[in-house]
Amino acid sequence: MRRVVALVRKEFLQIGRDRRTLAMILVLPAMQLLLFGYAINTTVDHIPAVVLDQVQDRSSRAFVAALQNSGYFDVAGQVQDVAQVRQAVDQGTARAGFIIPPEFSRNLLAGRPAQVQVVIDGSDPNYAQTVLFAATTVGQARSAELLAARLERLGRGRPTGELPIELRPTVLYNPSIASATFMIPGLIGLILQFQTLILTTFALVRERERGTLEQLLVTPIKPWELMAGKLIPYTVLAFANITVALAFGIFWFQVEFAGNLLLFLALSVVFLFSSLGTGLFVSTVSQTQGQAIQTTLFLLLPSILLSGFVFPREAMPLPLHDLGYLIPLTYFLKILRGIVLKGVGLDALWGEVWPLALFGVVVFTLSALRFRKQLA
Fold it and tell me: Which of these, 192, 366, 158, 198, lies nearest to 279 by C-alpha position?
């Protein structure tokens, strides 16, 4: 037993010396519990919506108030025409648009069904199904109120016929609300980040472990040439992965590519820049491949949970929702789904492009400076 105790003591001493690994062992379970406990929430409410009220009278305002008071919708504002409804949904500032036609009040007074068109962003099936359910619920509740008022006004009998308010939903981008249509663009972004992060990190750490990095330094190769020579092959591999994943999604899963392919590739370069910079930074703080794996997993877990890859970010608590803005994949997923599913252009995506580009410049610059400092 003395020998066993001695070995146990030696192992604890070695674990204690590797403080980075020890910190991750202790911190990672708590982080996983917090992220999984709060981020995994499929309940969606306070859905941003816009309203095109072409009546602007008591009846239409009462319907808009019913939407707002339901707790399902947050009316972000009133728009002036149908094109602005579509624009708000394209840009993602609204998940739903309600169009109240000019004859809405006349039909209610005449006892005819008053139709309301509901334009739904179908790119996220979870959101689309919630909007359908919530809009139907609000329409039925408001219809019940109108029927009760009509019964009280008549003072006899029971109103018959159809419901006073009839909702006409129109699901954009993904009419069948198929989950594969939503997941495939997200998987492309996740695969791209995983490949560039892992491969870039391991390429540099492996050179350091083998001692060949020092051998390269005695050659005429400059630090920036060494970085370029290391990163360019993995950039090519990343684009090959994008091509394969995109082709597989289109031809196997029947996901229709609605946008501009050149814009898709150009903005993928912007994301790739930030992901390569992150991998380079991880390589500068890792001495072994084991440390690189732990650090990479530490970064990938929040990316999967907080970026909106699976779970809606709007359903997360405010601190976790805001933390997602520090993750490049958050912006790239909106870019991917905007181009692939919605077919929107750079004007609608600019709000996601510039933070992604800024992150890439900052992290790549810091990583390159730290890398050159280690080589000096």
Answer: 198
Q: Each residue of 112-151: pLDDT tens digit?
A: 888 999 999 998 888 888 899 999 999 988 888 888 877 7
166 and 152 co-located in one domain: yes
Inter-residue contact 126 to 40 (CB < 8 Å): no
For residues 337 and 364, state if they share a domain. Answer: yes
Q: pLDDT tens digits for 240-276?
A: 888 888 888 888 888 889 999 999 989 998 998 888 8
CA distance 116 to 314: 26
Residue 54 lies in a domain: yes
Rounded to whole angstroms, how far apart are CA atoms 49 and 78? 9
CA 82, distance to chain mean position in Å, is 26
Dist. CA 325–CA 296, nearest whole Å: 19
Residues 263 and 199 in one domain: yes
Asked if 238 contacts 332 with a C-beta cutoff of 8 angstroms, the reply is no
**DSSP letters for 208-219:** HHHTHHHHHHTS
Assigned domain for 65 exists: yes
Q: What is the CATH number of the domain that holds 85?
A: 3.40.1710.10
Characterize the bridge pairing of strands 114-121 and 96-100. antiparallel
Domain that holds residue 352: 178-375
Residue 206 lies in a domain: yes
CA distance 50 to 77: 5
Angle at 52 between CA 49 and CA 55, to 5 degrees: 135
Q: Are 71 and 89 in contact (CB under 8 A)?
A: no
pTM of the entire predicted model: 0.82
